[in-house]
Write a structure and sequence with these properties.
By secondary structure, this protein is mainly beta. Among the domains are: about 30-150, Agglutinin, subunit A, CATH 2.90.10.10; about 335-445. It contains five helices and 34 strands. It has helices spanning about 10-15, 320, 365-375, 420-425, 440-445; strands at about 30, 35, 40-45, 50-55, 65-70, 75-80, 90-95, 100-105, 110-115, 125, 130-135, 145, 155, 160-165, 170-175, 185-190, 195-200, 205-215, 215-220, 230-235, 240-245, 255-260, 265-270, 275-280, 295-300, 305-310, 315, 330, 345-350, 360-365, 380-385, 395-400, 405, 415-420. The strands form eight sheets. The protein has an eight-stranded mixed sheet. Strands 15-16-17-18-19 form a five-stranded antiparallel sheet, with no helix packed on it. It is elongated. The chain starts with 9 loop residues before the first helix and ends in a 6-residue tail after the last helix. The relative contact order is 0.09. Bound molecules: 2-acetamido-2-deoxy-beta-D-glucopyranose (9 copies). One 2-acetamido-2-deoxy-beta-D-glucopyranose binds near residues 249, 251 and 252. It is an enzyme of class 2 (transferase). It holds the Pfam family PAN_2. This is non-specific serine/threonine protein kinase.
C-alpha cells in the first residue's frame, strides 16, 4: 500500500459524517454534494494550512492548491491542476459518491480529477500537516492522499518514497517558473538501485545525488549531522525505502523544494523577518555536479584545479584534462592482480562515497568487508557504513568504475580503493593516507596548473 499512514481522528470524523459535515463545506472537510467554488477554501483544524484557488506571480491562471495559512507570504506546497490551470475564476471542486475528487468549471469542463475509490461515504479532509485525504467511514486507510502525489515540495511527515520491487517513486518536480506551476525541468526522487540515494535529474540527465544514507545523514550532505532542529529518518528494507524529516519544535516551519532553476532547497521560515531562509541547498558547488571529474576522478572544491585522478590512475584524455574538462575521467595505471593476493587498499578520507547505484551492501565487520572485496576480482573499493544506535555495521562493495567522487574538508566517509601493489608504492603499508600530493596532481603533471 502506497504511503500507508495511520489515520488520525478517524473515529471522530467518521462519527460526524451523517450529522454535521454533510450540512456544510466549511472547515476542513468536504463530502459529496459540497462544492468548493473559487473564493472558498478549506482550512485544517488547527489553522495551519488552507486549500483553495490562487493565482501565482504574474500568471493569469487559477490553480487549486494548498498553502500555509498562518504566514505572511503565500507559500504553495501542493497543486492539484499544475498542468491544466483554469483561465478564470469558474473552478469548482467536488467529490463524487465514489470518492473521486474533481475540479471542473461551471460548464462542466474537467481540469483535474482523482480516480474513483471503493470507500463508502467518502469524506475529503485537509489535515493539519497539509495532507489532503479521502477516506471512507470506518476505513483504516486513506483511499487517496495528496502526500502520495507531491508537487515540488516535501513537508514534514511526507515520505520521499520508492517501492523497491517495482522501482515506482514519488517524485518532486519543479515548477516551470514562479508564474507557471506546470511540470518543470527538474525532478528529484529516491533511486532504489544499489544503496538508495536521492537523485536530481534534468530530463534523463542526472545532475546530482545525495549519496547513500550513512549513520543518520546522506554521505553527500556532511553538514546534515549538525542540524539539531530536525529529526531525519531513513528506512530501507526489501520492499520500500523512504526518507522523511520533521522539525523537533513543531512551531518551526521547514520544507524541501525542488526549484525551477535546478536546486533542491531546504527552507525555514523566519518569523521575525517574515521570510523563508535557505537553510541548505544542493547541488552546492561544481564538485556536486554529477560526474564532474569523471570515473576514478576526485573533486576537491578547495583546490585548483578541482579534479585529480585517484592515486594509481591517470587521465583518460590528457588533452581534455589539461583544458580542465574532467568528464572523461581516469584509467588505472596497473591492472589489479586479483589471483595472487598482492592487491591492497588506499584510504581516501572524508569522501562523498562514489555512486552507489551498482553496489552490494551486506552486514559485515570491517575486516570481513576488506576480505570480501579482495576475494572478488570485480571489486574495486569498499566502505563501512556507520550505524546509529548500535546497529550492525554494513559493508558497501563497489564493482567496476567509481563515479562521482569528491572529498570534503571534514565530515565525509572513509573509502578504501583497491590498487595493484605497484600503485600503492613501496611503503609496505597496507593503507596509505591519500592526501593532496603535488606529485600525483594530474594537471600539474600536464604542465597546465595555472589559470
Ligand atoms: C472561463 O473560461 C472558459 C474556458 O476558456 C470559458 O468557456 C468561459 O466562458 C469563461 N468564463 C468566464 C465567466 O469568463
Ligand atoms: C465516479 O464518479 C464520477 C463522478 O460522478 C463519474 O464520472 C465516474 O464515472 C464514477 N466512476 C465509477 C467507477 O463509478
Ligand atoms: C519520476 O521521475 C522519473 C525520472 O524523471 C521518471 O522516470 C518517472 O516516470 C517519474 N515517476 C512518476 C510517478 O512520475
Ligand atoms: C523522529 O522521527 C521518527 C519517524 O517519524 C519518529 O518515530 C520519532 O519519534 C521522531 N523523534 C523525535 C525526537 O521527534
Ligand atoms: C519552539 O519555537 C518557538 C518559536 O521559535 C519558541 O517560542 C518555543 O519556545 C520553542 N519551543 C521549544 C520547546 O523549544
Ligand atoms: C575530449 O572531449 C571532447 C568533447 O567532450 C570529446 O568529444 C572527446 O571524445 C574527448 N576526448 C577523448 C579522448 O575522449
Ligand atoms: C600472479 O602470479 C603468477 C605466478 O606467480 C604470475 O605469473 C602472474 O603474472 C601474477 N599476476 C599478476 C597480475 O601479478
Ligand atoms: C563479485 O561481484 C560481482 C559484482 O558485485 C557479483 O555479481 C558477484 O556475484 C561477485 N562474486 C562473488 C564470488 O562474490
Ligand atoms: C607524495 O608522493 C611522493 C612520490 O610519490 C611520495 O614519496 C610521498 O610520500 C607522497 N606524500 C603524501 C603525503 O602522500
Amino acid at each position: 500500500m502506497v504511503g500507508r499512514q495511520r489515520r488520525r481522528e478517524s473515529l471522530v470524523f467518521a462519527a460526524l459524517i451523517p450529522t454535521l459535515i454533510a450540512l456544510s463545506a466549511a472547515g476542513d472537510t468536504f463530502v459529496p454534494g459540497d462544492r468548493l467554488e473559487d473564493g472558498g477554501s478549506l482550512v485544517s483544524s488547527d489553522g495551519s494550512f488552507k486549500l483553495g484557488f490562487f493565482t501565482p506571480g504574474k500568471s493569469n491562471f487559477r490553480y487549486l492548491g494548498i498553502w500555509y495559512n498562518q504566514i505572511s507570504v503565500q507559500t504553495v506546497v501542493w497543486v492539484a491542476n499544475r498542468d491544466s490551470p483554469l483561465p478564470n475564476r469558474t473552478g469548482i471542486l467536488s467529490i463524487s459518491i465514489n470518492g473521486s475528487l474533481s475540479l471542473s468549471d461551471t460548464k462542466g469542463v474537467a481540469y483535474w480529477s482523482t480516480p474513483p475509490t471503493r470507500v463508502a461515504g467518502p469524506v475529503a479532509k485537509l489535515l493539519d500537516d497539509a495532507n489532503f485525504v479521502v477516506a471512507g467511514a470506518g476505513e483504516g486507510e486513506y483511499a487517496w492522499q495528496s502526500f502520495d502525489h507531491p508537487t515540488d515540495t516535501l513537508l514534514p511527515g511526507m515520505k520521499l518514497w520508492v517501492d523497491r520491487r517495482t522501482g515506482l517513486t514519488k517524485n518532486l518536480t519543479s515548477w516551470k517558473s514562479d508564474d507557471d506551476l506546470g511540470t518543470g525541468d527538474y525532478t528529484s526522487f529516491l533511486d532504489s538501485r544499489g544503496d538508495p540515494q536521492i537523485i536530481l535529474v534534468q530530463g534523463s540527465k542526472q545532475v546530482w545525488r545525495s549519496g547513500p544514507w550513512v549513520g543518520g545523514r546522506f554521505s553527500g550532505i556532511p553538514e546534515m549531522r549538525s542540524y539539531g532542529i530536525f529529526n531525519f529518518s531513513f528506512v530501507s528494507n526489501a520492499d520500500v525505502a523512504y526518507y522523511q524529516f520533521s522539525t523537533r519544535n513543531k512551531s518551526v516551519l521547514s520544507r524541501l523544494a525542488v526549484q525551477p532553476k535546478g536546486l533542491i532547497e531546504r527552507l525555514v521560515w523566519i518569523q521575525g523577518v517574515g521570510e523563508w531562509n535557505v537553510f541548505w541547498s544542493g547541488p552546492r558547488d561544481r564538485c556536486d555536479a554529477f560526474g564532474y571529474c569523471g570515473i576514478f576522478g576526485v573533486c576537491d572544491a578547495n583546490e585548483s584545479p578541482m579534479c585529480r585522478c585517484l592515486q594509481g590512475f591517470e587521465p583518460k584524455s590528457p588533452e581534455n584534462w589539461s583544458l580542465r574538462d574532467g568528464k572523461d575521467g581516469c584509467r588505472r595505471r596497473t591492472a589489479l592482480d586479483c589471483q595472487n593476493g598482492t592487491d591492497g587498499f588506499l584510504l581516501l578520507a572524508n569522501a562523498k562515497l562514489p555512486d552507489t547505484s551498482g553496489v552490494m551492501v551486506n552486514e559485515m565487520a570491517t575486516e570481513e568487508c576488506r576480505e570480501a572485496c579482495l576475494r572478488n576480482c570485480s571489486c574495486t573499493a569498499y566502505a563501512m557504513k556507520e550505524m546509529m544506535n548500535g546497529g550492525r555495521s554494513s559493508c558497501i562493495l563497489w564493482s567496476g568504475v567509481l563515479a562521482d567522487l569528491r572529498v570534503y574538508d571534514d565530515g565525509g566517509q572513509d573509502l578504501f580503493v583497491r590498487l595493484a601493489r605497484a600503485d600503492i608504492g613501496t611503503t609496505g603499508e597496507k593503507y596509505l593516507q591519500l592526501g593532496w600530493n603535488s606529485s600525483s596532481r594530474v594537471f600539474r603533471a600536464g604542465g597546465s596548473d595555472h589559470l
